[in-house]
Amino acid sequence: MSDQTLGTTTVTQVGIIVRDIETKARAWADVLGLPIPEIIITDTVDLAHTEYQGEATPAQAKLAFFHLGQVDLELIEPIGGPSTWKDQLDQHGESLHHIAFFIKGMKEKVAYLEAKDIPLVQRGDYTGGRYAYLDGTARLGTILELLEND
Amino acid sequence: MSDQTLGTTTVTQVGIIVRDIETKARAWADVLGLPIPEIIITDTVDLAHTEYQGEATPAQAKLAFFHLGQVDLELIEPIGGPSTWKDQLDQHGESLHHIAFFIKGMKEKVAYLEAKDIPLVQRGDYTGGRYAYLDGTARLGTILELLEND
Predict the structure, then answer these.
(1) At B17, is the secondary structure helix, strand, or coil?
(2) Is the full-model pTM beyond 0.90?
(3) pLDDT, tens digit, 9 for 90 and up, residues A74-109
(4) Do A5 and B138 touch (CB under 8 A)?
(5) For the complex shown, is ipTM > 0.90?
């Protein structure tokens, strides 16, 4: 597909905001009959270059992943400063947060969505790639995450 | 897997509650570069046997589906009486509502989850099958939907 679309229609991840990731990871493992996953912590702002609403933020998150076929279920416990993760927990409690797509060309795809009134709210880097959250609530009914691996 | 687990680890559907399904379906089609899907209306209570919190309810919903690989994205506009769909719209606005799994043996799987403090909140039939929503918010951070086709 061209740069005039998102370039993918494959949902790769569903994210859930939780208050207590250890408890929730155990409960999911129990319900699904799967091993309890490792819990990791996102990089600090000096490495992740995390930006929320255009400003650097010390926000981090604890993450745990269940690989459920095509889709990863991502548990996210917000820690630290302002973030879309913390907003969701404060405003809606523990709840589904986003669906994610792997894309190519982060800058162009963010611009594509912003031109459709789906604004960037948070971005950052991880080892081997980068992510962006765009607030599609008004237009699509959910936050989107774009993921790009090198 | 035995009846002692959910019997599947494959996410088959992600549901989004919306206020205006025609507008949202057009927006998703535009972002994804896909055709605008047909909008259907769930059966009335006499056919669907819809129950919310153990009582018959005249609730219905308008539905639209995007087939995104393994996962269907389901847009849901609640209409009519009390439902988990209406609860979500009233309490959280337009937002992600559930993730769904296809299972075999609805009665046993609902009992399996209820025994884990994940209570049934709504159930009903559709042509060729049946569904149940279980409120996993406290235990898992989200509502689950079980789907069973004949």
Answers:
(1) strand
(2) yes
(3) 999 999 899 999 999 999 999 999 999 999 999 999
(4) no
(5) yes
